[in-house]
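Complex 380.
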Amino acid sequence: MVDSEELARRHGGAAETVVVNTCAVTGEATRQARQAIRRLHRERPEARIVVAGCAARIDPQGFESMAGVTRVIAEQPPTRAFAASEGTRGFLAVQNGCDHSCTFCIIPAGRGASRSVAPREIVAQARALVAGGKQEIVLTGVDLTSYDADGLKLGGLLRLLLRETPALARLRLSSIDCIEADDDLLIALREEERLCPHLHLSLQAGDDLILKRMKRRHLRADAIRFCERLRAVRPDIVLGADFIAGFPTETEEMFAQTRALVDDCGLTHLHVFPFSPRPGTPAARMPQVARDVAKDRAARLREDGARALARHLDLQVGKTLVLLAERGGAARAADFTLARTPGVEAGQMIEARVTGQDGRALLIDPLPASRSGALIARAP
Ligand code: SF4
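Predicted structure with iron/sulfur cluster bound:
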């Protein structure tokens, strides 16, 4: 969310000034930021290194003491729409910060309270992305479902955005919190075909006691009910979720509840992390599960995820799908299912028949109009 060039102008001015944006979402991200600073100082010992971002706000002294660092920016950046593009997709940050305090998470310490970007600014950025050729926009935020600006919650924002960008083929959401989702989001999913039938849920665990110890605001039954409501309004929706395996005090029986949730919620795409304590968080002071046990549980949960994905891929065989080609011979369906599309140029939207699957992605045969390179100009 920080404009590095602007920071370089403000805090250095000289060509020798380099701004390093840090992230504290995972311990690994912070470690990589420190590594990048050390490498930078080694390769360009004359450069003035300015450190910004949430890891710097959490540990300013730690970064200040690093060789070559001339300044650490601890202030929160202004909240404004931040667009970034990766290949065929445009990413639009519409919210930052978080008002919650999950016991495993360091984000609120680094990114502050929840702030939402004004809808008019988001619309302007989205129009610019579409004018620049993006056919798909992904809305991002630290706690996206807490979006609230000028009387609009997330669902209202989605509907406004789709109305104001008629040329946009697909609008997608990054991770959301099932307990915060507003009714307008369900209405938008029911009424807006261009809103992708794909949601990634921040579930984290399937056992109520662990959810309480995580200080999540939903229970197991809430997650299941939310998924049922989603399917009622959008039967073709495909769901993913984040999980932490081996959270402090988690027993094998509690973990079994998490595994069972994959089927109970009908999840397809899993992101699984073995618990790793972040210093300074309440969870780091709870009785820990042995690291090898946490890793083993994560591996088993990932296997459950692989089986769920394979079942989903099998169900696609024989269908005709619209795919948006990315770089590297891959493409995504509107529901985020991956397909192999060797030879199709990135940015093309093609129609293809699904002929098989390889365990991770669909194998396809483009329809004749797509083979000739004609762009499909309709919504997903
Ligand atoms: S909702 Fe919880 S996990 Fe997500 S950013 Fe906020 S504190 Fe962290």
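The longest strand covers residues 349-357.
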